[in-house]
């Protein structure tokens, strides 16, 4: 589960301010390391990427490339989205060797949807825009929204300590606040970086269930990276703790809170929060790690247990539902103004990315700021970015992922180009 930085650029130093990939990236790194340890063919060459970390380097390269090239869609009509250009971006993604890709672009009331390649490799099934997929760390923005709604209802405070809600669970928990968990400034070790998390799946038990408190226990066996509030480092552990705090404050499940507060009110009919069930409901794209199977064939990770990601990255959704959520969030339908401002109050990650409370911002190469998150899990990579008013949006997904730095920029590049094409066409 990495994110816009929820893990993905070269792994940052401990005092770095960039978010690495979410649990998903870390798990991939663990799978890779364990495969190598057991003498198996590694999933991919190179260091595992922590998504945000990876994003930093990829972002710098993409900004330079985009600045040197004309904006995509610069010849498009000013009255409609550059549909041919956006479809071409999806086809280019598939041409890099990915099984398939889905994209959604939106300007105001006009929406374009497209797909290319295959959703399932054997037997072959074509990719379609409405298919479900695992969104990885995009989940973090949803979790953060529930937490901030509870703050607005005076059931939580951003300054509350972890110890206040989860007594005895985290060493030094009386000095770690909810705000720090949301913003990755707690200093807690990222449990997904511990190879024990990947071990059951490496041994072939893709359905193995990790319980949230077990994930926290793995994390707290490691020393903290820094004193709370003194630096920044992407940590999935923080969002597992936020899920546990939601349960403690509401006396109900994270799944129930997401459904009653977000999925239901926004009509997100194709979005779900699987707790332990590895199966994706309804029509969906399978997720693959390329070259990881016998003889270098793709390895299908669709059935991987969501339990290791939980409130940090286990959601299933569609590009339409993800775009609808971010538009509603940024237009103030889910949070009052003061809490949306708090969510968008960011810290500098040192990578060109700013990170708020479960929401990241980034500057487009063609000008302007966009908000959203990145997410990746074994088999999936996706980005969701919107302008601050939710007017322009792009969500893109490929149904492959290998934990390498390549995938962050692979999808980020066409997302940048699509957003710049929309801005050019609508100007």
What can you see in these coordinates?
Strand 8 and strand 9 (353-355) form a beta hairpin. The strands form 3 sheets. Strands 3-2-1-13-12-11-10-9-8 form a 9-stranded antiparallel sheet, sandwiched between helices. The model is unreliable at 2-79 (pLDDT under 50). The protein is of the alpha+beta class. The chain has helices spanning 23-37, 51-68, 83-95, 139-152, 162-165, 178-183, 199-202, 212-220, 236-250, 254-266, 319-330, 337-343, 406-426; strands at residues 100-107, 110-121, 124-126, 133-134, 288-289, 299-300, 316-317, 347-348, 353-355, 360-363, 369-377, 380-387, 392-398. 59% of the residues are buried. Helices cover 35% and strands 15% of the residues. The chain is globular and about 55 Å long.
Supply the key terms.
427 residues; alpha+beta; nine-stranded antiparallel β-sheet; two-stranded antiparallel sheet; 13 helices; 35% helix; disordered N terminus
Q: For the terminal residues, how far apart are their CA atoms?
A: 35 Å
**How are the strands ordered across the major sheet?**
3-2-1-13-12-11-10-9-8
Oligomer class: single chain
* Order of SSEs: HHHEEEEHHHHHHHEEEHHEEEEEEH
Low-pLDDT segments, ≥5 res: 2-79
Class per helix and strand makeup: alpha+beta
Radius of gyration: 20 Å
Instruction: Please work out how many helical segments DSSP would assign.
Output: 13
Work out the strand percent: 5-15%
Average pLDDT reading: 84
Estimate the helix proportion, in percent: 25-40%
- The global form is globular
| Major sheet size, sense and barrel closure | 9 strands, antiparallel
Number of strands: 13
